[in-house]
Amino acid sequence: AQRAEIEKAQRVEKIKAEEQLKKDYKIINDYLIKNNITAQKAPGGTYVEIIKPGNGAKVDTTVVVKTNYTGKTLEGVTFDSNTDPTFSHVTPLNVNMTSDYSLGGGVIEGWADGLSMLSEGTVAKFYIPSGLAYGTQGNGNKIPPNTNLVFDIEVLKVMSKAEAKAEIEKENADYKRYMDSRSGRAHV
To answer: For a Cys staple, 151 with which of 46, 51, 126, 182, CB 3.0–4.6 Å?
Structure first.
């Protein structure tokens, strides 16, 4: 009986998610039309507007992507950025597109979907339906449940697994040297 209840609840959630996705697509399509924006739909449903095409390596599931970004709601409220000092983290974000978790964590589904259409050097905007972002849970005070998101994205570099691993190892070594220097330990 408990299993049947769980399956029933999952079916209900799936139906709600499909209905929300239809609403999201209409809201985003209306926004794109109203603002005369041309965007392509990525395979998973993220809308991608190419601002400046890149000419470097293509993003796929074998790479780590170094990015700059600013995230906003469709209404224009900025909730995060790695280029705006007011958010206190102005370093590029490495996005692990692989299944190797030693290379870092992933991102929301809409990001991975949109990045799959880009290459090194691309500047783009992602219009992400809520179900490919934070869904019915939302994320903190700035992203309520069922919120469609817009991200300004710049692909700074597309790195192979080996390049990403070397970068991580260098950053870890640099951090260790810094911490050793702060604690007064000499570096041999």
So the answer is: 126
